[in-house]
Amino acid sequence: MLETSARLLRLLSLLQVRRDWTGPVLADRLGVTTRTVRNDIDRLRRLGYPVEAQPGIAGGYRLGESATMPPMLLDDDEAVAVAVALRTASAAPLQGAGEALLRALTKIQRLLPSRLRERVESLRSAALPLPTHGTPVDLDTLVAIAAACRNGEQLPFDYDSHSGSTSRRRVEPYRLVGGDGRWYLFCWDLDRDDWRTFRVDRMTLRLPAGPRFAPKPLPPDDAITAHVARGISTATWRFRARVVVHASAEHIRTRIPVPLAITEHGPNRCEFKVGSDDPRSLALYLGMLDAEFEVRDAPELAGALRDLAARFVRAAEVAD
After folding, report:
1. CA 260/CA 229 separation, integer angstroms
2. Which of 289, 222, 223, 295 is nearest to 257 (CA)?
3. Which residues of 111-123 are buried (b: 16+ CB within 10 A; e: fewer)?
């Protein structure tokens, strides 16, 4: 019986790593006859696994979709990767998912062998997550947006801008992009007739989704993420500033991890626009440039820089 159970687990593992298997290939992998494979397939079906069979010379077996969630088999690296990902995701601002993530993490950690549990625990004890300031996003909202992206359906919603005003929007959704503790929707705005980025935590969906649309040619994924990052750096923030830096564009890019549209005015003089919900955070960021800079058209940022400079001066006087 133990031999049969071990063989079933091995068969299930094989079915999970590749879409299609022929009977003879499975029999060869397991060291049994094709008749034994058929019997084992029937056992898996009785346990709730939806194994599909295709007759004929080119036929075989595949693991289909199920109405319920049957057990899964993970190898060592997969189990550690899932445990680490669940631990990281459980700290993210995703409303309604935190408890489910922790339950899944608890189940996986309870089943991990000690050697794998030590790998997960060593990473947990050594890694400190950066605090995120994003507003929690409702899990159902995120799933509904993802479904509209997948199904190619127009998405109507009300949007709260950073200024506090609310507008009705209608878009063709394409990609969800996560970063900096927030979720963003990359889409084609039907009213603006252009690509736009919206913060998901500011969206109130008006379901059901609208009619289907013919997908537009998409930019490459790295171009999409760069577009979203540029939008994050300016349009979605409450405070914005135009900054002139006495340094090269390469120097700026090595110190600010967000893609910026930098205009060069000479070998050591550049200009770019940035934004933040908190001018003090932006002032600290600019201080990390390690270069002389000038702030234009941003009185809130100018005030934050004065306060920060005064604080540093007081700290230096105490240290002397």
Report:
1. 8
2. 289
3. ebeeebbebbeee
| Fold that domain 2-63 belongs to in CATH | Arc Repressor Mutant, subunit A (1.10.10)
Strands 94-95 and 137-138 come out as parallel
Query: Is residue 169 within 8 Å of 106, Cβ to Cβ?
Result: no
Give the Å distances, CA to CA, from 253 to 205, 240, 257, 291: 36, 19, 7, 13
Architecture of domain 239-319: 2-Layer Sandwich (3.30)
Domain 137-220 -> CATH class: mainly beta
CA–CA separation, 81 and 84 (whole Å): 5
Tens of pLDDT, residue by residue over 263-318, are 888 888 998 887 777 788 888 888 888 889 988 878 888 888 899 889 888 988 88
Structure tokens at 279: 């001018």
Global pTM reads: 0.52
Encoding tokens for residue 126?
A: 């050594």
| pLDDT tens-digit series, residues 72-117 | 667 777 777 777 776 666 555 566 566 666 677 777 777 677 777 7
